[in-house]
Amino acid sequence: MLYSEVLDSMQERGGVMSATVSEDWLQGRSVFGGLQTALAVRAMRALVPPGVPLRTVQTTFMAPVPAGSVTVRVQVLRAGKSTTHLEARLVDQEQTLCLVVGIFGAARESSVRISPAQPQVACSNPQAFPYIAGVTPSFVQHFEVRWLRGGLPFSGAELAQNVLEIELKDRGSATEEHMLGIADFIPPIALSMLKRPVTGSSMTWMLEFLGGPPDGLPLQGWRMDAELCAARDGYTSQTGLLWGPDGRAVALSRQSMVVFG
């Protein structure tokens, strides 16, 4: 299934949302984390005034979300004059598998305006990250990715920074939901520093949107600049800045991960 097909499969029945996720979107035993968050945001959209941008999304991954029918329960936590806070849970009966808090906010008048400038990255030989059945996670087949800085997973790289060019294979142009999938593609940088395959997964993820929606940008030409800030006892912390195809900074990522090795 295409990314948009998974999102468009969402239906509401008796106040509960559900969507169908095919196995090609698995990341190990669980559905790809960016898609989990995008499903939660799609469910939230039904309770948010039209046209109000997503400003921040905070995700806690608690247990594997299997492919098949994914159930999402959503509620408004608070609706103010400018912002609306919502909570969405991906559940298996009464067990919460993934918890997402989203904040949607209308634009406000402000004289403060700062936009990061995209740094140049010199790379004469980008490293492609191909999908290999049975080796790379299934969801990788939906992306075209090239490493401009740093090393691929399990390459024994010494650099704690990764720069990736990312393309999502889908129809149409980019939406805030596409941005969630693109921003979450990058693996734990700690995996690049290892020389043998081990398991890694996300515990928490926060994405802060640095402006409004992507305004119809293409799904090609996105870039993620990420840095491993700290690692100890199997827990890692990394940040990332997502750049749109037009060179504009569009989102700031903060992620806590575990690496079993």
Task: Name a few traits of the molecule.
mainly beta; Porin; 261 residues; globular; 15 strands; two-stranded antiparallel sheet
How would you describe the overall organization of this protein?
The chain is mainly beta and 261 residues long. It has one domain (3-106, 126-259): Acyl-CoA thioesterase, double hotdog domain (Porin), CATH 2.40.160.210. 12% of the residues lie in helices and 43% in strands. It contains 4 helices and 15 strands. The protein has a 13-stranded antiparallel sheet. Strands 3-4 form a two-stranded antiparallel ribbon. Strand 6 (68-79) and strand 7 form a beta hairpin. The longest helix is centred in the first third of the chain and has 13 residues, at 33-45.
